[in-house]
Amino acid sequence: MRYYSAKADEAKPDADAKDEAPQAEANPLEAQLKEKDERIKNLTDDLLYSKAELLNLQRRSAEEKKTMGDVAITKLARDLTESIDVLDLALKSVPEALRAAPSDAAEAPRALAELYDGVSLTRKSIVDMLRTHGIEAFNPMGEKFDPKLHEALYQAPVPGKEPGSVLDCSKTGYMIKGKLLRAAQVGVVQESA
């Protein structure tokens, strides 16, 4: 049998109130803590996203910079290859016998030989400079004709030569970093009829 006293009844609600008070105080703190955790998570996600975007932007910028440099070099290289063609024509116009004059030769042949040497050195200097920038010349003489690399100017039947091979190279071709800069202009051996 249990006896109730008024003091016990009064004490009991106070105990319940004391238990509810910490829970009431804990709930707002828990809610604030959850809210802060969610905010931290969102800010962390935003930070990681921003870092990824920055890295992508840096990578794209570096690629664009490289591409722009390659485009600029390509335009200059095309112009310089035309200059090399002109120098080649000048060198071919000097007869073999006059390309190297002895020191006791008359002034005119010696001057022509020196001019030939100067033009030859200028051509070599330009070709070397292009090579340092990844531009290589190619002469497909004797190779199989490749329409991706060669521009056929004419065809001629030549006995004893393999049909479809390059017979003559009028203009040297150029590659820039493994890509075609200018196709070689060639004559191709035609099949005999």
TrEMBL record:
InterPro entries: GrpE, GrpE_CC, GrpE_head. It comes from the Eukaryota. Gene3D superfamilies: 3.90.20.20, Head domain of nucleotide exchange factor GrpE. GO terms for biological process: protein folding; protein import into mitochondrial matrix. CDD domains: GrpE (cd00446). It is found in: Mitochondrion matrix. SUPFAM superfamilies: Coiled-coil domain of nucleotide exchange factor GrpE, Head domain of nucleotide exchange factor GrpE. Keywords: Chaperone, Mitochondrion. GO terms for molecular function: adenyl-nucleotide exchange factor activity; protein homodimerization activity; protein-folding chaperone binding; unfolded protein binding. Residues 1-35 are annotated as: Disordered. PROSITE patterns: GRPE (PS01071). One of its GO terms (cellular component) is PAM complex, Tim23 associated import motor. Residues 7-21 have a biased composition (Basic and acidic residues). Belongs to the GrpE family. Essential component of the PAM complex, a complex required for the translocation of transit peptide-containing proteins from the inner membrane into the mitochondrial matrix in an ATP-dependent manner. HAMAP family: GrpE (MF_01151). This is GrpE protein homolog.
